[in-house]
Amino acid sequence: MIEIERKFLVNNNSFLDDFSRSNRIVQGYLSSHPERTVRVRIKGENGYLTIKGKSEGFSRYEWEKEIAIEEAEKLLQLCETGVIDKIRYDVIVGTHIYEVDVFYGENEGLVLAEIELQTEDETFEKPNWLGTEVTEDVKYYNSYLSKHPFKTW
Amino acid sequence: MIEIERKFLVNNNSFLDDFSRSNRIVQGYLSSHPERTVRVRIKGENGYLTIKGKSEGFSRYEWEKEIAIEEAEKLLQLCETGVIDKIRYDVIVGTHIYEVDVFYGENEGLVLAEIELQTEDETFEKPNWLGTEVTEDVKYYNSYLSKHPFKTW
Fold first, then answer.
1. Where's the CYTH domain (chains A, B) (predicted)?
2. What is the structure's pLDDT at A1?
3. A31 vs A96: CA distance, rounded Å
4. How far is B5 from chain A (nearest CA, A)?
5. Which residues of B touch A (CB under 8 A)?
6. What pLDDT is attached to residue B108?
7. pTM of the full structure
8. CATH assignment at residue A86
9. Of B104, B103, B105, the residue nearest B114 (C-alpha)
10. What is the mean pLDDT of residues A10-27?
């Protein structure tokens, strides 16, 4: 399906006052090519395999299947070097959910917020902790961060 | 799981006298890297996503899931250039099945036979049409052929 997502920097930690749940995410890439990323993810107790196509504006083709966590662990071992480790906080704001990712390891210091929309022109509430939009900046793709971590910028 | 497979050239077409079934296969690669190939395949009426690790001798880690044919068609559009088109003949020889692939398109003229084994030292019957072994020659990997087709050799 086509996913429509917008991504922002985060100005401060006040989102932590309002999050509804959080999950540890560890993910690696079998392909980090921006036109065909293949991602292996462990989120909490679940495994996922996700394939994404090229971005066009705020939209990107995305295919995802849940897989057994044991299979995800095996596939993570095949991945390119540069595993992403982060905690994702779900924060409900108005009628939307922001997913706020706090990165660790080589990307420590980076915090990003993402919101999924139904249409490209859908409006949404912007909380005070939301910073600059970086949707179209490939530097903030997790696939890019896995190769060029935030600490090396 | 770990797959143990051996691959051979094919000397002549006499395998066609004995095949039990055949399927058209069209496949592309989201990653053609030999340490982490990600293959999208349509075989007959079914779709498959397959991930393979690095070869070690005759063995290679392989993960495969059946997916909807419509999803496979979408994912094929994301693949690297160089789609593989072939007909696979299943040929029973003794207690084993040889999968004989007759290639078309840019790989026309190439015919390869593969046999799956339970152990690395398992013995198996070699029919008269079976040629030179090429198991460890990466040139005959389908992922390599997708980039460097047989007609260009």
1. 1-147
2. 86
3. 30
4. 19
5. 30-31, 33, 35-36, 38, 49, 51, 53-54, 61, 63, 65, 67, 71, 74-75, 77-80
6. 97
7. 0.90
8. 2.40.320.10
9. B103
10. 95
